[in-house]
Specification:
Number of helices: 6
Mean pLDDT: 74
Radius of gyration: 31 Å
Shape: extended
Strand content: 5-15%
Structural class: alpha+beta
Number of strands: 3
Length: 188
């Protein structure tokens, strides 16, 4: 009878249904070596007597499963930073496969993230959208083509005038330019 009273005294927790599901796309297999360390030595000071790692040779390949285990301060995070390219070896090399993409979850995310910014603001700062370059800008890949057709900068801006075509309004040639340089004579 005492067991029945104990069971009724405390409400058992209800299991929650997962509200967020992560799905990761299948990735293509990368040919070895994916992340080789060749003769890597590292010290934050750069001095040989302070080496945390010395003459480290290892390879992490597509099918490798790695667990970094050890006491605080033994260099686990430093090894991950060498793998990600955040740190560079004092000696030796770490050559990441050209198609390798690393994803990291920082253990001290509160130190890395701006806690006052929303996730959307963080993503926009970290991965800004490509800048839109005006076709008339000297940086535009279209700029040489536009100058070949003798378009003026007034064509780059939208106009409210609709009575003539854009090509006529800008005085552009509609036939391809000849092999010779454009003449400096006035356009009709």
């Amino acid at each position: 009878m005492l067991e029945k009273l104990e069971d009724d005294a405390v409400e058992k927790p209800k299991l929650r249904e997962p509200s967020l599901v992560f799905s990761f796309p299948e990735c293509s297999k990368l040919a070895p070596p994916v992340l080789p360390f060749d003769g890597v030595s590292f010290a934050y000071s750069g001095k040989k007597e302070d080496y945390l790692y010395e003459d480290l040779n290892l390879a992490v390949d597509y099918d490798s499963r790695v667990a970094l285990v050890g006491p605080n301060g033994c260099g686990k995070s430093t090894l991950l930073k060498l793998m990600s390219g955040e740190l560079h070896p004092t000696e030796g090399s770490v050559k990441k496969h050209q198609h390798l993409t690393l994803g990291l979850y920082h253990q001290h995310s509160a130190e890395v993230l701006d806690l006052d910014a929303s996730p959307l603001v963080f993503m926009r700062r970290t991965f800004p959208p490509p800048q839109v370059i005006s076709p008339m800008s000297p940086l535009s890949p279209l700029s040489p083509c536009i100058s070949l057709y003798l378009l003026s900068s007034s064509c780059a801006a939208p106009s409210r005038r609709r009575s003539t075509s854009g090509a006529r309004r800008c005085g552009a040639r509609t036939s391809p330019p000849s092999a010779s340089a454009p003449s400096s004579r006035p356009r009709p």
